[in-house]
Amino acid sequence: MHKDDGYTEEAVGPGSVPLALRRVLGLVVSGAATNRAEIARRSGLARSTVGQQVDHLVGTGILEEVESRRSVRGRPPRVLTISPQAGTIAAIDVDTADSQVAIADLTRRIIARETVVVRIDAGPQAVLDAVSERLQRLLKDNNRDPGRVREVVVGLPGPVDFQQGCAVQPTGMPGWDGYPVAEHLQERLHAPVVVDNDVNLMALGEVTQARMETPLLCIKIATGIGSGLITATGDVYRGADGAAGDIGHIRAVSGSNVLCACGNVGCVGALASHRAVLRSLGIPESTEDDPLYGTHELARRVASGDPTALHAVRQAATEIGEVVAMLVHMFNPRTLVLAGPLSQLRDDLVSAVRAAVYQRALPLATRKLTITATQLKGGSGLHGGIALGTRDVFSPAGLARLLAAEPTPDRQDRVPIPDPE
Ligand SMILES: [Zn+2]
């Protein structure tokens, strides 16, 4: 969060959070300074001002000042950290066969994570009720105050209107088009809700959790194909309307006439997604016993060297590679991460995509490009959601909300915000 901690030098309006307080907190949140002396040195603020702001942040329960475990002679230094009790972020990653939920503290540490088995075609009410109930239980089981959920971030596997908080004409998601996802979750979890495309969050998770270099392009190959783009400065690039990265309906290079759920023919998502590969091999996606039967069966066939399965995967990889090569020219990413069930099959998919990209793209765009499968084992969307949530909480607007939401239970008197000026 060094590059994008949201602490710009803009003017401080009435009712907003003092700049000095934001600077102090920003240095602690980014890890750039962990004690009062360091903060004073790095911020250029007077020690007395730093002291006032730190006292205030400790008083409201946002920061904690503890004795360092580092053994030094004399008095142990006091170290400032975000208080683990200052708030909770809830993250939801909705997918076709099931959804994942997690709760984390404001240092992005995951406290609990679970899978909720509800198919996306059961409709938004069934899915959102199930994930809210599970989150409420996780909060209770882990002694997290439900009144201190600071933000809920949910990723949906389709085009998302980021401003309105809903999906827009997603394929294979009956009932979700325009459904007020943010409102539904806000009513149950009583916190601000952000709705984003799932691959945007996965891409952010790769940068914040797996520490992948930016600019980064993440491609998810699952029921469909989608991508998320992180800019050089670490922000999600959503485009003008939130549709950036929706690559599943780009026409595949082979010019096939396979019909896509969107109504067009030859879309790369209809030709080379995990679902398309399963269909071409006659493998059902799920059975009564195993909601992820298709994923498991394809992995088994590939691992055993079944030539038909290997051929289908490599053919899909080549189609994807052609599209990815175009994207590499367009965005010149430093890192390309492949995610979704197909990316976890030995190295067949990744190496075939790599081959297609290197054959197509020009040397300047590929000489420092890393192409890899995700190492986050299906958790990148949750990590990205948590990262987005904490960024919002520590943004100037989020911070004003956070300070207004306190005092802590042990300090019922409102602590006035000291103004150094
Ligand atoms: Zn299509």
UniProtKB/TrEMBL annotation:
<dbReference type="InterPro" id="IPR043129">
    <property type="entry name" value="ATPase_NBD"/>
</dbReference>
<protein>
    <submittedName>
        <fullName>ROK family transcriptional regulator</fullName>
    </submittedName>
</protein>
<dbReference type="Pfam" id="PF00480">
    <property type="entry name" value="ROK"/>
</dbReference>
<dbReference type="InterPro" id="IPR036390">
    <property type="entry name" value="WH_DNA-bd_sf"/>
</dbReference>
<dbReference type="InterPro" id="IPR036388">
    <property type="entry name" value="WH-like_DNA-bd_sf"/>
</dbReference>
<comment type="similarity">
    <text>Belongs to the ROK (NagC/XylR) family.</text>
</comment>
<dbReference type="InterPro" id="IPR000600">
    <property type="entry name" value="ROK"/>
</dbReference>
